[in-house]
Amino acid sequence: CPWQGPYHELTVHEAECTHPTKTGNELMEILDEMDQTRKKEMQLYNSIFSLLSFEKIGYTEVQFRPYRTDDFITRLDSERTPTLSCKRPLSFQLILKSKVNAPLECSFLLLEGPYDDVQIRPVIYHFVFSNESNETDYM
Question: Of 5, 14, 24, 126, whose CB neighbour count within 10 A is largest?
């Protein structure tokens, strides 16, 4: 049963749940649907992360730019020099690359991959681009 809820509602749910009365075939159909949903989610994640693996992602109006330190090589003394650690934060910004006639409102975020050990807390950012304000802050 895919039900999720607070523990104090479990008894009520168990009394009303129809899953224990389903046949094996009905349960297999439910599991197949769950598998298909999971496959679609994986395809979406794979598409998103293949796009994010590019150095620059250009759309018609906006470009993605990651922030990088000058030194990419991690060293044994990384505890003393945090900029050389492989546990440093990832920062990025979006840049409006062309002129616009009207403000361009944009919402954006980064997501963590299903098999990734990069820790990303997804937050949706909003920004209104204009010719005078053409770069977001680093996020």
Answer: 14
